[in-house]
Design goal:
- By secondary structure, the chain is mainly alpha-helical.
- The chain is 41% helix and 8% strand.
- It is built from 18 helices and twelve strands.
- The N and C termini lie far apart (57 Å).
- Bound molecules: heme C (HEC) (2 copies).
- One heme C binds next to helix 8, helix 13 and helix 15.
């Protein structure tokens, strides 16, 4: 009895002590210290609440960056390539016929229906907006409704320059308004987008001919070889435009969702999400920031990069680095989407799960629930039975085990880094041979249903 009372007294004493210590701790939080990126305002005095608020701010800032931040890359896409002039056309201060909304949609550009001005939306619905008139592309650009593209207008309304954003390649729309027009789906790869064909419209390709040391027809040949849903994020490092059998070296646009918990990113594991964001913002989008990776000094593996010093990029002011933390946070917060109801057979998927984790040995590499290995998730080409062209282009010369959730968003354009397997069946058939699995037809079909369910 006394013991119990003593215990209560001791516990009570510590509780009171903690209660008093609390405000002191909170005061420490409010003491002046550099604000981490993504925070603003004072501490609430409750650190749990500070974390909560910080997380919310990081998501909002990161989303803004992902959707709308050009990092100053209009100096490249607009001022140098003059891509905006080809989009505007001669009638609006540019060159040529201009890019009509119909043509833009055909090239896979997407329109954010929530940004389309109401009268334009009504006009489209009523069939009164001429989708063959480039003036309407300009109207959409000015409304900031073209996903991943920002136009900068002059006082007279002509487009002066343009820049691109992450969302260009890594967002699509749900087609809820019309095909290609709808609400944004951040992180879903835009497998309709023909990046190469769009870039090839640019009136001035000299930045590419200079960088790669080839003539303009060659640059155009490379850009137009990619096709929809593909891009080559390493061409400016090694100058390799074609792989085995003269296949374009471009990769399919990957998912930028479901990446939390995954250690390495890109098909060949160049680094973390934030490593890659700095890489892309500076070296692909041509934003004005700071980027450092001494691996890119290797003249044998990365001759183009070594020649132009892409291993150490320094711009003042640095428009990229202050955005990285929140951008990283936002990307990690994007969940993998669930496949639509009815798009797979539930019972077969259940049986397929057992095949995945058992007879087919998939889970040795695709470890659930991440579906990649915790740790260093990298494999030599021969382990998965393919050529090493793309892996050899990366610093670690390996392929990373792709996380498999939301596979249904990647069926268009195919699976594996270059989309070589056009269907789920083709992937399973590949593993059947490469890993000598000896699965029967039923097991293969069940496995396919399981992949569709992820
Ligand atoms: C022009 C198209 C394009 C743009 C713009 C672009 N990316 Fe990518 N992104 C790609 C391609 C292609 C890859 C795959 C590269 C590879 O594996 O070699 C990739 C890979 C990634 C990955 C790795 C995904 C994984 O599977 O691990 C992330 C994350 C990512 N991008 C985020 C971004 C962010 C953030 C931005 C903006 C700063 C951005 N990307 C801009 C085309 C693009
Ligand atoms: C040795 C490790 C390993 C095993 C075992 C393995 N995978 Fe993979 N998987 C990988 C790697 C690495 C990639 C990336 C290949 C590429 O992009 O070229 C990949 C890619 C995939 C993809 C393509 C994802 C995409 O978006 O392109 C699918 C689907 C897939 N694996 C399913 C399976 C199935 C099903 C099994 C079992 C039959 C399996 N994997 C067994 C390592 C493995």
């Amino acid at each position: 009895m006394y013991r119990k009372l003593l215990l209560v007294a001791i516990v009570g004493f510590f509780a009171i002590l903690l209660w008093f210590a609390g405000p002191t701790e909170a005061q420490r939080q409010t003491s002046p210290s550099p604000q981490p990126v993504g925070t603003s305002g004072r501490s609430t005095g409750n650190f749990d609440q500070d974390i909560q608020r910080h997380a919310q701010q990081m998501i909002e800032e990161g989303r803004k960056t992902f959707r709308f931040e050009t990092f100053g890359d209009e100096a490249f896409w607009g001022d140098q390539l003059k891509l905006h002039q080809a989009i505007a056309g001669a009638k609006f201060g540019g060159v040529g016929a201009g890019l009509s909304p119909a043509k833009a949609l055909e090239l896979g550009l997407k329109v954010d229906s929530e940004m389309v001005p109401a009268e334009v939306a009504a006009g489209i619905k009523a069939g009164k907006v001429d989708l063959n008139d480039p003036a309407n592309t300009i109207a959409l650009l000015k409304a900031n409704a073209v996903v991943g593209v920002t136009a900068f207008a002059e006082a007279n309304g002509n487009v002066r320059s343009m820049g691109i954003q992450c969302a260009l390649c890594h967002s699509t729309v749900d087609d809820s308004f019309a095909p290609g027009i709808g609400r944004r789906l951040d992180g879903w790869p835009n497998r309709d987008l023909n990046v190469g064909a769009i870039v090839a419209l640019a009136p001035n390709l000299k930045p590419f001919t200079d960088m790669l040391g080839v003539d303009e027809p060659t640059v155009k040949k490379v850009l137009t070889s990619w096709g929809p849903g593909k891009y080559d994020a390493e061409l400016d490092k090694d100058g390799k435009a074609f792989g085995p059998d003269n296949r374009p070296a471009a990769t399919v646009l990957p998912a930028a969702f479901g990446l939390a918990g995954v250690n390495l990113h890109t098909y060949s594991g160049w680094g973390s999400v934030t490593y890659w964001n700095a890489y892309v913002a500076n070296t692909q989008m041509h934003g004005k920031g700071v980027f450092f990776d001494p691996r890119l000094k290797d003249k044998a593996q990365f001759p183009v990069s070594a020649k132009h010093g892409f291993d150490n990029i320094r711009n003042t002011p640095d428009l990229v680095t202050p955005k990285l933390a929140a951008l990283h946070f936002y990307q990690l917060s994007i969940p993998a989407p669930k496949p639509p109801a009815g798009s797979f057979d539930q019972a077969a998927a259940g049986r397929g799960e057992a095949v995945f984790n058992g007879a087919a040995k998939c889970s040795t590499c695709h470890v659930p629930p991440l579906f990649t290995e915790p740790g260093w998730s990298m494999h030599e080409a021969k382990e998965i039975g393919i050529d090493d062209f793309q892996s050899a282009r990366s610093p670690d010369k390996r392929y990373r085990t792709t996380p498999l959730r939301g596979l249904f968003t990647r069926e268009k354009g195919g699976f594996y880094h270059d989309g070589r397997f056009k269907t789920f069946d083709a992937v399973v058939e590949h593993y059947e041979k490469a890993l000598s699995l000896k699965l029967n037809d039923q097991q293969k079909q069940d496995l396919v249903q399981y992949l569709k369910s992820l």
